[in-house]
Structure prediction request, 169 residues.
Amino acid sequence: MCSSDLGPVDIDRRGRVAVVSDPQGAVLALVRTEDGDPPAREPRMDDWLWQELWTTDGPSALAFYEELIGYQSETVEIPAGAYHVLQRDGHSYAGLAQLPWDSVPPIWLPYIRVEDPAAVSARVEALGGRVILSTDQIQSRDAAVIEDPTGGTLAIQRWTPEGQAGGSQ
Prediction:
């Protein structure tokens, strides 16, 4: 737990929420909605696409979330190492990866689906934000990591569902 821990509290039309941190310090919100989880659907353009935990101790974090949430994991090898897809009831909810930088603290990184990450990134600084990783620094060139004017970090990604022309996740 950390100084940012909060709750649980009731939020009108949302449910019961608690803000906590995991053993490595990554902050997350736990939500119990009045209506349960929304049904799985295709992410729309400019909508939440995915979330990833970038952590300093992948095996410990994986064991923590498997025990806490009941996730199972599927491990996929990527050039940066093992990538774990957290799943429950046949649905993928999030990814988990080892941080490649020693100076970066663990963080849950939300992704937003966009049509053109390079075009969105080009507008970030004019709006008071900062580009942390540009599309030129990411191998696929289909994503960027940005920071809003308040320090909130998120990723933007072009994503075409599998089965559509050129699609892959």
Q: What stands out?
A: The longest strand covers residues 48-55. The chain has two helices and eleven strands.
